[in-house]
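I am still getting used to backbone structure tokens and would like to learn alongside you. Would you supply a protein for us yourself, any chain you care to pick? Start from the sequence, derive the backbone structure tokens from it, and show both lines together. Go ahead whenever you are ready, and we will take it from there.
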Amino acid sequence: MKQDDTKPSDQDNPNIMKLSSFMDKLNMVFITTMVMLLLQHLVLTTSGRAIISPPRHSLATDKAALLTFKKTIFHDPYSALLNWNDTVHVCRFNGVRCDRHHHRVAQLILNESQLVGLLSPYLSNLTGLRILVLINNHLYGTFSQEFSSLRNLRYLRLDGNRLEGPIPQYIAHLPKLIGAVFLGNRFTGTLSPSFFSNCSLNLESFDVADNKLSGNFPADIGNCKNLWSLSLYNNQFTGVLPHSLIYTSLGNLDVEYNNFSGELPSKIVGNLPGLIYLHLSYNSMESHDSNTNLTPFFDALVNCTNLMELELAGMKLGGRLPASVGELGQNFTSLQLQENRIIGTIPPSISNLEKLDLLNLTSNLLNETISLEIGKFQNLEQLFLSHNKFSGPIPEIFDRFPSLGLLDLSQNEFTGEIPSTIGNLSRLNFLFLNHNRLSGKIPGALGRCSELHKIDLSYNRLSGTIPSFISSLSEMRIFINFSHNQLEGPLPLELSKLKDVQEVDLSSNNLSGSISPLISSCIAVKLINFSHNAITGKLPDSLGELKNLEVFDVSWNHLSGMIPPTLAKIHSLKYLNFSVNDLEGIIPSGGIFNSITSLSFLGNPHLCGRTFGILACPRKKHFFRSRMFLGIFATVIFISAFFTTICCAIGIRRVRVIISSRRQESIRRKQRTAPEPIPNFPRITYRELFKATAGFDDQRLVGSGSYGRVYKGVLSDETAIAVKVLHVQSGNSTKSFTRECQVLKRIRHRNLIRIITACSLPDFKALVLPYMANGSLESRLYPHSGSGLETGSSDLTLQQRVNICSDIAEGMAYLHHHSPVRVIHCDLKPSNVLLNDDMTALVSDFGIARLVMTAAGGNAAAFENMGDSTANMLAGSIGYIAPEYGFGSMTSTKGDVYSFGTLVLEMVTRKRPTDDMFGGGLSLHRWVKNHYHGMVEKVVDSSLVRASKDQLPEVMKMWEVGIGELIELGLLCTQESPSTRPTMLDAADDLDRLKRYLTGDTTATFASSLGISSSTIGDY
């Protein structure tokens, strides 16, 4: 049958159906598994590639960046970078620290490593860097935009380098930055208004001190909520302090030496309760109520309960010191208010500042007496009260300051005796009581101040002897100054025990006795001044053992004997003065004696030597004692006498005629060679001059210099005169007298001093000049304390200064271009410019002038030979001498132009060119030039700036033009190259136009003769 023979189907077999279902599921699992494995493989492969592929920044790239940085700078082969090479692991590089896992460089610290070169942008590849400190190197260039990649940076210090350009805005936006210090670089430009717009909340310290930043400080500083320290010291910021500072956490605010203006920031400091240090000194701020009221500011400071230091120096702040100064907090330690206009007395409440250790009120207008209340300062270490108007006796309170190390009461009007209680200050190092009216004896109790380093009691009325206590001042290391008093008695032998003292000045007293040979024990001494005393005896040879001696002055004494030749062995000596003594013998040679002039030996008629201006020593005379020589000598004398008698008898009449003729010729010769007074002026005898000056009394002394002294005199007809008496012992002074007579009798000009007459005797030479009631220009620029003007000010207005400069220029132009004989002044400076009754300026002192005549052709110049030459004299005074003279150039009119330019700059700035601030390459010219654009008020005399305040716009514009013209003229005249300086005719012409402009002449224009413009001033 067919059905029996047929195989059954799969569908009819249940086992087969189950197997088929199982296989289908197995296939699905397999496929799923394979897909998962494939996906896992893909993931692992992708992940593996991410791990194996090098990242963009790594430890390797950090090392490469550091080695590239090393290649861009110069460094000592043995410097901190010695082990920076491929063989050393980067984490072991000197100055380098890596993070905890050594994945990245985290710190780069290279302080004072003498690195010189560009601040390489390759350092920006150190993106893991947290600390970058490169202090006190010589890196230059800009802080480029690439450094914005340092997003992990927390501390950045680049102080003490030479970086320049603007400070980039991204600095304040680095998210993790805590402190940024750019102190002591050359950054310029402004901080943009949005500099702190996105300020990092981590920023706690921002320091850009001692740079050249300018403009207004950004108002959005308040966005830096956690900012604790802000230092802007010594920049050129202007405007007012931003009010948003109240939203910060400031504890230290230092904006000294800028040009911030407006009222003292009372509202700001009153809302900064955490303020600890507040330094606002040397800005243009003022106190409230038109600079008359300090109370609102000090009242606001009472809220700053943690305040420790307050500095408001050099701001000319007016008003009285309020009682609230005593509420500045229990931790307050330092108050500096010097160089202001604070009036009245010190409030007694100041004694509440129990922890005060420094109080400085120097150069104010404080008066009356010192309050006894300040005797409660148990912790006071430094007290400055100098340059005020305190009067009366010094109070007996200073023994209550057990910690006092410095006491300065100088330049006041204290009277009475020095309190002996000062001797109880066992820690006193510095004592200044000079320039007062103290009298009595120096208290021996001062000997208990055994730690004194400096003591200055000069310019008082102290009498008695110098106490022997100075032998106990074993710590005296700097100076002892008792000069200009009325001390008497012998020089104390105890001076020899001050082995560490550097300066000893006992000049201008009545001291006697002799200089002990034991003075050689003062092995550290650099200056000894015993001048203007009555010291006798010989100078000890042991002076040559003072190997550090630089200045030695024993002039105007009664010393005798010879000058010790051992002084020639002291290589450090720079100045010697033996003048007006009774010294004798040969002036030593060698060492300093080969360079000093005869000025050091004036008034010692028995000295001789090879020094220019000193008589040469006579040669030794040989006497022949043999009888033959005596016989021959007697025979010759007899024959000579016989023939002489015959000749006299024969020609006696003719001899009489010849003698008479020669006498008349001698009179004529003397009249030709002696300095002649101007014709039509009467001759004045020595007796008349002696009487007119009250015997040349020191009370009549109005000035002195290297060649003589000037006395005020009144003749019998009530004519006021000035008598210039020269040191006749000096060869140079005699030449100066002759030269000045030669010049004055040849010149006539309203701006040049005229001579009344001259008095010339073998031992006395004097010029008689008109007396100038307004004194010299120097005395008006720098008035002394008795003038009624405040310290540091002058009453000369801008118009007067321009008129004076114009007068000087007119006088100098006459000398250079119109005088019958061209004259080069060679010593133009403020002390040689006199002011008559109507403030007209007259150039004076032609003692070292050169007389020049035009040679053939009119182009060359030659010195006129007029007997005694001044060609070997120094061509000017320090600070006013043209730079080319220092390289041996001949004197020229362009040298006078340089001196005139320096004088003009001094008139504007009221800064002497020899001021202590000018050093290390900085000069008056360079200082003015650096501040000319945008910062002119920083260099202009403060009294001129004050006078310009609150003026009408047109008056202010005239002031700005006047100041600008004077500065430009001064800078142009003081250029290095003589060929680029104008002539005095050009300068006089420009100043004449400026005078007319300031008096309202609208037709006056400038720069037509000099070519001056603000666009070219930077080229000087």
Observations:
- The first strand starts at residue 73 and ends at 74.
- The chain has 17 helices and 50 strands.
- Residues 804 and 840 are 7 Å apart (CA to CA).
- The chain has a mean pLDDT of 82.
